[in-house]
Fold each of these.
Amino acid sequence: MLWQKTLCEMLGLKGRIIISKHGINGTVGGSLTACKMYTRRTREFAPFKNMEFKWSQGSADDFPRLSVKARDEIVAFGAPDEIKVDEQGIIGGGVHLKPEELHKLVEERGDELVFFDGRNAMEAEIGKFKDAIVPDVTTTHDFIAELESGKYDHLKDKPVVTYCTGGIRCEVLTPLMKNRGFQEVYQLDGGIVRYGERFGDSGLWEGSLYVFDRRMHMEFSDEAKQLGQCVHCETPTNDFVNCHNEACRKQTLMCASCAADEKKAYCERCVGTAANQ
Ligand SMILES: [Zn+2]
Ligand SMILES: [Zn+2]
């Protein structure tokens, strides 16, 4: 943790890095030279020699600060002891599919195949794979109860493809699913980011990609479908606004005019309540 923190500080990088006994995951922003230096230095640590990095347009200003933390889990599913890793990575996870391999599997298995969104339900409001199942989860912590609820038992003998932003959440989600009886689990290698780089908006992805920095969302092309709509007036929008109730702050899809309206700039639950009288 100290090594990574010092390295980022030295290079003027901002962002968020989580380190656990299972590995490391994070996003940093800064000048191209600084980011390149970061990848080079990080790979010098032998276990990280083959680490994958994904690149996207942005800067240090997309992040409010630098945060480097050591945690029990890289992704907070609430199951630190269920996850086991060896030199090859996670043990007992899903079969990795490259974007082309995903298309091949869809061709072979047709309607039998199910897409299962591995993100928070909110993220899928603005973009998801066509006909994907979106579990009712507010945070990753809700996933285990959702998987054990019985709602998805009919998928347990079907080919299920999980996906998430960059492929990391699925690394943890897929063994949790397999341990709970899902027989044929796949995961999209490199996540939506890599799929979008390869197929843009001409494949099976629809809409915008929610991202965890100031950009909030990104599109793969000008052809991106607009899936989101304002919770108040149904105007198409991909912009999340924090509910103006300080005690809530829920990210809520809102059009520019509702977001600018003092009476309306609240989530569905808070709008019209005592909080804004
Ligand atoms: Zn509106
Ligand atoms: Zn609210």
Amino acid sequence: MTTPLTLDSAAKNCVWEKPSISRQDRAILNGHRSCIVWFTGLSGSGKSTLARRVEEVLFRKGIRTFVLDGDNVRHGLCSDLGFDAGSRKENIRRVAEVAKMMMESGIVVLTAFISPFAEERRLARTLVNEGDFFEIYCKASLAECEARDVKGFYKKARLGQIKNYTGINSPYEIPDNPDLILDTELEAVDVSVARIVEFLDEMALVCAQARLSTALPWSAQ
Ligand SMILES: Nc1ncnc2c1ncn2[C@@H]1O[C@H](COP(=O)(O)OP(=O)(O)O)[C@@H](O)[C@H]1O
Ligand SMILES: [Mg+2]
């Protein structure tokens, strides 16, 4: 992997440019606040499914959202990274920084990354203020994820065709204290989606309907 520049080497000759439009200004314009909803779990545990489905619900409420998905960023922003521990760390550092910028822009960012290491998830959380980051653990056993084998990668990993596959030959560290746990092995997708939306409502994330919601074609449905 490419060695990332250290903070010292990269930032010492830079001065932070203060934006003239604040995050609060953007929240007022949008009619809702922004945050990062960070899904973590084994491959096949339901991160992408739930991030997309929750996004659909929020979108229909007139909330500006975006899903950052592990598989997608590895086709672009992180296409130079592999799956060894150092690369995984750098992968999460980059996406956490991107998620932070998107959150600053006023968007509710839903991220779907295995993010197997507690240390990287902690780093992602500490980039933003308390109350801006919600960790959602998609809990499903390895046996269940392997049985689902959504992409056929578990089979390949078992055959030794994929190295460093989380759960098979690379560790997954179960979150100690996630904001929400979803048992996606026992729960139907709709139930998990409803629980997340309710949780976000409780967190006052989407307390105010976006002012545009009444203008959306589906709001009359
Ligand atoms: N409660 C649930 N939440 C999310 N996915 C579920 C749930 N129950 C069953 N599934 C199924 O599990 C699979 C999860 O796949 P995916 O979302 O691609 O996982 P990941 O992004 O974590 O690798 C999907 O086929 C989905 O239909
Ligand atoms: Mg996925």
